[in-house]
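Hey,

Quick one before I head out. I ran the complex with EPZ overnight. Inputs first:
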Amino acid sequence: MDRILIEGPNRLIGEVAIRGAKNAVLPLMAASLLVDGWMTITNVPRLRDIDTFNTLLMHLGADVETDYDGGVLRIRTPQLKSDEAPYDMVRTMRASVLALGPLVARFKRARVSLPGGCAIGARPIDLHIMALKKMGAEVSVEHGFVNVKAERLVGASIRFDTVTVTGTENVMLAAVHAEGTTVIGNAALEPEVVCLADTLIKMGARIKGAGTDTITIEGVNALKAVEVEVIPDRIEAGTFMVASAMTRGNVLIKNCPYKFLDALIVKLKETGTEIRQEKDGVRVIGDIPIRSVDVKTMPYPGFPTDMQAQMMSMMATAGGLSVITETVFENRFMHVSELRRMGADITIDGRTAVVRGVRALSAAPLMATDLRASASLILAGLAAHGTTEVSRIYHLDRGYERIEAKLLGLGAKIKRVKA
Ligand code: EPZ
């Protein structure tokens, strides 16, 4: 397995361009199952999760053309060859569950493996199943698979007791052909949900309220394939903002979705980081001392759970005490034990971590456990004294396109060592 070596401490200087959002591309790929024509998705980053979803779509019967250099993905599903999303695919990527909604909507059936747990928590799909049942689907769970059948789904009033991003997306994808109107209460407000809704509307769907906590979908009979450009990745952008902030850097982030990052920007400014919008992007200037701040993750537009680990790396070398509370997932502190190996002073109590800033982190051999934890270890390595080695970086490649090349371009002393 590949490893990444980083020599620190090092200031990041220069500019970096942000690519399309992984968590917007995946539901758009699922939407391509709804039509038999060629869907064209542009501004697509080269990521392992997208490769995994392509494999699943081809398994189901889709034709897929990828132009990685151009960031263009073309998908069409003229017919279904299989209605099953197998365990080995769903296990590696939970977002495979997004195939459920469109398969039932268009082909009246689906057989999707239960995702199983992952490093950051149990991550069940009970809310997805509840919603499909409310829409009249016949659902059975056996041998680790969810079997869903419906001659035609019927619009229903659904309310999620927990905000679920892919749950909201799955119901939208299922409801576009349903008989009548579906209303989703306590819907996710994420920009990626809005990107999917906008695309479905362009395809001919009738959707109102995306971006609010109540989304209404009126079923229609036919949809058409369209071309869509993916919104920029707010988590990739946020990760580079924190990287600059914690290395006393001066980085211009191009294609930065500033308006999607309010909660992070407010927090970073409280640490003493300078953030300003310029003609070509957003400039982030780090300074010392870094002031400690408290963080509580919440569904959008609150502080993103996908930025919690990166912020913790920054707080590890801040000047005081930072209380970080993870309210979305029950086990998203896998990076803490690795940061401790670098000398970080962090104590965990349930879903809360108390971070006492230390003068400096020291380099150490580290092991990545999940996508965003991997990023937080890379960031810590940039600031730590010595050479940090991060192994199991296949987690990183799921959600960051060539992160070591982009950091190298900013002056980091970083390299990937092939297995
Ligand atoms: C999406 O995951 C993102 N993935 C995650 O990003 C992100 O961390 C998460 O939303 C929260 O923002 C994609 O969009 C592909 P949830 P998702 O359903 O939809 C519980 C990354 O790093 N829940 O919003 O799977 C669940 O256990 C990834 O890019 C149920 O209990 O997350 C969690 O505690 C990681 N039952 C909470 O809701 C359900 O049926 C939020 O999960 C569904 C969810």
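The two ends are 5 Å apart (CA to CA).

Talk tomorrow,
K.
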